[in-house]
Design a protein that fits this description.
single chain, about 140 residues, alpha/beta, 4-stranded mixed beta sheet, 3-stranded mixed beta sheet, 4 helices, globular
Length: about 140
Amino acid sequence: MAITLTDKAAAHVNRNLEKRGKGCGLRLGVRTTGCSGLAYQLEYVDEPAAEDQVFESNGIKVFVDPKSLAYLDGTELDFVREGLNEGFKFQNPNVKDECGCGESFRVLRLLSLLWIKSAIQNRFACIRSGLPSNSERSTS
């Protein structure tokens, strides 16, 4: 699992951390919103959370919460200038669909895999504890 920054993105983040005068890196996450379901969240980190996964790329620490990591694994963050506009651009291999406005995205296959993983973990937890699983409860 990895999150990476291009040289341009790392330079931009580093400049902004220096301007702020504080901070130890960048937090990348996702939130539920928009017409396609998920949107990226970016913020500077002053104090990391205990559960954060930490990646370092081009000298910048990138903090990701465990829930967001499944949607962001393999993402490369770039900083681009297009005409008068500039901003971060996400190259996320997990994205299967994006909305027309470009603000949100969908990761159908990954969501299905996460649901299956959760169901398997639940089944094994029931076996270990001696409790019947949901499917066994419905047939009794």
